[in-house]
Amino acid sequence: MQSTAKFDQEVDVLVVGSGAGAMTAAVAAKAEGAANVLVVEKSDVYGGTSAMSGGGIWIPNSHYARAEGVNDSAEEALTYLKAVIGDEVSEERLKAYVDKAPEMLEYMANNSKVKFETVPYSDYYPEKPGGKEGHRTHQPAPMNAGKLGKEFDLLREQPSQVKVMGKFTMTMKEGRAFLTQAKGWMFTLFLMVLRYYADIPGRLKGSRSRRLTMGNALSGQLRWSMLERNIDLWLKSPMTELIEENGVVVGAIVDHDGSPVRIKAKRGVIIGAGGFEHNQVMREQYLPQPTSSEWSGSQENNTGDGILASEKVGADKALMEHAWWAPSVRIPGWERPFIIFAERSLPGLVIVNKAGKRFANEAAPYLESGLAFYTANTPEAPTVPSHVVFDATFRHKFPFGPIVPGYTMPDGRLSKRIWKVLKKADTIEELAGLIDVDASALAETVSKNNDYAKTGVDLDFHRGESYYDRYYGDANNTPNPCIAPIAKPPFYAIPIHPGDIGTKGGVCTDVNGSALREDGSVISGLYVIGNTAASVMGSKYPGAGSTIGPAMTFGYLAAKHMTSGDRVSDGLKQAASKQSSSTVEPA
Ligand code: FAD
Q1: Quick check: 579 pLDDT over 90?
Q2: CA end-to-end span of the chain
Q3: Atom of ligand 1 at shortest distance to CA of 273?
Q4: Which of 224, 283, 322, 382 is geometrically suited to a Cys-Cys bond with 504, CB 3.0 to 4.6 A?
């Protein structure tokens, strides 16, 4: 940690990282009167994993939901969070989220280009007290990339898994219709393709769709808001260290244009630099084993920098053993794995361990499903990796991760790389041999699945019982939309790992996003948000958008706090009295 010395640059607010939480904080700080706000980003593109994501945010009782006549309340939302998260997180923080998240959403709707709409996506535990079967998750309204001008080229691209055929951008609602082949999906697809090719200027420029959706729409809208408010963004500029004086964070050192720049931040520093999912050393130190950053769907810059820098100035950490787990399928030679968010709910597959047995409800919410790989892992029946087993009917009809449905891409046209991990056989016993699992156990597992497909009741793991399980099931498959026979040869198997979409553990913070020491005192001048902070959701995942919703909310609250009288009375005055010796030389 650095102390008193001259600064090269001075800003009001320094924001580290350009994920959705960080850009929300920057826009809100400027809107609240900060004279100048600087965002520094390690990568050569902006948006972070937020830009690659579905862009969904879980915000109960929003003004959007109220306008649609949705019946929800802060009390019900708090009841639900307490039922799911228990006492892992203080009621004060849960209440802050429930009360302030809708306020943030309305604030952004009124003060920025950020626009959302609700989605009928179920809470992940709708049967728990206060749970709802939809309209707490919101998706960003699609955006025309033309609004970003040249900045469009610097917006981090979405992975192909959140595009149709790796090319056509889609909203969350459209994605569900395609996956489950809901009524009218072909017409929606036709319009999507038509719109893509009708964008002649866009096609002349390249193949990237200018209809921004999901995380690209959110990051695009945030960047557009920054441009409108003249907020500077430095790319290729990692923050390397915080500058502390007498217990107050007064700035940071940022590598910029090949040199370290000492930046004074008069009102404070907000760190939204993601988690540590791409720091293999930290993964091995904190997460359950075995673990690999290769199974993470997040982008490679999230290496725990913000957590490590905060720790050096005395910040306490929590939840370091937890991640936003999500099973993933890795194809050798492909940049990142496919996160299997929804396909596990489709009927006609099982996930089996090395002993050839199921170990969890395949259709469970992805955090629970990913975590099960660790809780069920034993030396006798290892689960890492496990295998997804399906038959010709499933293969023909549905996508699974990198494998598009057979009716659009028959086996012969699948990439050779996929065939390095995808196995195919005429019998279940032969398939078991190819993936080295116990043949009779696998045959028994498949036979049980086929019995459950008839009765609709999964006696072992209750697949399809929850409304959530069925959300991505096939409504035309009866009696259980999540279970169908695995009976028609050839049979297929592909390895699956306990992947993640980011880590959950990080710096302890209060209701304003201020970093805390072990004794609970505030580190004045330092705010930590997104996956750099220990999650307000504890180790759980209450609903789609539980990572970006809090990142944006605590980004907004941090910006409000640092630009308000509260911060002036507690932090800045303290800093001002202790900082009189530092010199400032604007660059
Ligand atoms: P990021 O968005 O990753 O931003 C961190 C930024 O900080 C990065 O740009 C990084 O380059 C930068 N950075 C790192 N170190 C430094 C440094 N030293 N100096 C400067 N900059 C630095 N979550 C949801 O809530 N809803 C969804 O719909 C959803 N869908 C997803 C879909 C996919 C395919 C994936 C992979 C994830 C999804 N997630 C979703 C998870 C979500 O994207 C992440 O949890 C979230 O974006 C993390 O936000 P963040 O701000 O902490 O990090």
Answers
A1: no
A2: 22
A3: 7
A4: 322
In this prediction, residue 95 carries a pLDDT of 98
Distance 19 CA to ligand 1 centre (A): 5
Chain centroid offset of residue 164 CA: 19
Using the predicted structure, report yes or no on whether residue 577 has a pLDDT greater than 80: no
pTM surpassing 0.70?
yes
What spacing in Å lies between the alpha carbon of 129 and ligand 1's midpoint?
30
Nearest Cα to Cα of residue 361 among 374, 375, 344: 344
The residues pairing with 13 across neighbouring beta strands, listed in sequence order, are 37, 268
Most informative mutation of 45, 213, 236, 302 for ligand 1 (most atoms within 8 A of CB): 302
pLDDT digits over 140-161, tens only?
A: 999 999 999 999 999 999 998 7
Q: What is the SS3 string spanning 414-468?
A: CCHHHHCCCEEECCHHHHHHHCCCCHHHHHHHHHHHHHHHHHCCCCCCCCCCCHH
Q: Is the shortest distance between the CB of 49 and ligand 1 below 6 Å?
A: yes
pLDDT higher than 90, residue 570 = no
Q: Is 550 in the pocket of ligand 1 (CB under 6 A)?
A: no
pLDDT reported for residue 566: 63
3 state SS of 321: coil
The Å distance, Cα 534 to ligand 1 centre, comes to 14
Q: 40 in ligand 1 pocket by Cβ < 6 Å?
A: yes
Of 384, 405, 276, 402, which is closest to residue 339 (Cα–Cα)?
402
CB atoms near residue 249 (< 10 Å): 28
pLDDT tens digits, one per residue of 174-183: 888 887 778 8
Average pLDDT (15-22) is 98
Q: Is 466 in the pocket of ligand 1 (CB under 6 A)?
A: no
Cβ of 56 below 6 Å from ligand 1: yes
Quote the pLDDT of residue 572.
Answer: 44
Predicted confidence (pLDDT) at residue 47 exceeds the cutoff of 50? yes
Tokens of residue 453, six digits: 């497909």
Q: How far is CA 339 from the centre of its chain?
A: 11
Cα(263) to centroid of ligand 1, in Å?
24
Query: What DSSP letter does each residue of 334-346 carry, written as one string?
Result: SSSPEE-SSGGGS
List the one residue out of 567, 58, 489 whose CA is nearest residue 265: 567
Could you tell which of 44, 50, 536 is best to mutate to test the pocket of ligand 1, judged by most ligand atoms within 8 Å of the CB?
A: 50
